[in-house]
Write a structure and sequence with these properties.
14% strand, alpha/beta, Lyase 2-enoyl-coa Hydratase, Chain  A, domain 2, 11 helices, 2 domains, 277 residues
Length: 277
Amino acid sequence: MSDATFELPHTETLSLELREHALHVTLNRPRCRNAMSLAMVNELMAVFDSVKNQIDIRAIVLRGADNNFCAGGDIKDMAGARGEIQTAIEEGKPNPFAELNRQFGRMITQANQAPQVVIAILEGAVLGGGFGLACVSDVAIAAHNAQFGLPETGLGILPAQIAPFVVTRVGITHARRLTLLGSRFNGEEALRLGVAHYVCSDNEALEQQLDEVLAQVKRCAPAANRATKELIMKVGHIDMDSLLDQAAIDFAEAVQSPEGTEGTMAFVQKRLPSWAS
């Protein structure tokens, strides 16, 4: 059940807007093409945490301000971490570069596991950490001229927290090429690789596609969607028999739940279920 006292967290690097059953989250650092600072990472984590139990929020739409999704990590944060290394060594604290990088990994894992349908609107720069976010979305809608890529190795670093999610998204063969060559490609290629699910020729088509996806989300029962996503995310992490045993129990509970009853009655009565109206 949703919390009646629910409030979205205050954010400075994100713009948040609730519209019907979707929370629209805009990465809002347009001067640096929405490069991801540590502050933005922490704010995204706070947002995902605040809505995880809000069953009325059925989708999270991620996009970037001024027609850029995200140009990757913020170089200023890395420069700051460099200045903290000696102090960290002297005080026996963890390496600040490792902590900075790992915090992004915690955030992208949280996004990957969000119970809502996570929809990414991919325009302009979709690089580094932005590419990683695209790879954990449930539905990705790309502009045809968006620029995707993993530039890390060209900078002498590695896509440490991103690469595992890229492998999961596109497979190891394509992940090797994309990470080891730092290749840039557009929305059409993103569609071919499976990074994107839809590619749009202009902004009007993109907005229309988003509306269609959100309408489809609304047609699906919220608790059933959550349980289905949780089931899918367990594939490959536990043995198949155990997974199917639990899935059968979850199915039986769903059939007997208020959603299951309403869905069945709506089908028999040839009407939309309550959650779709």
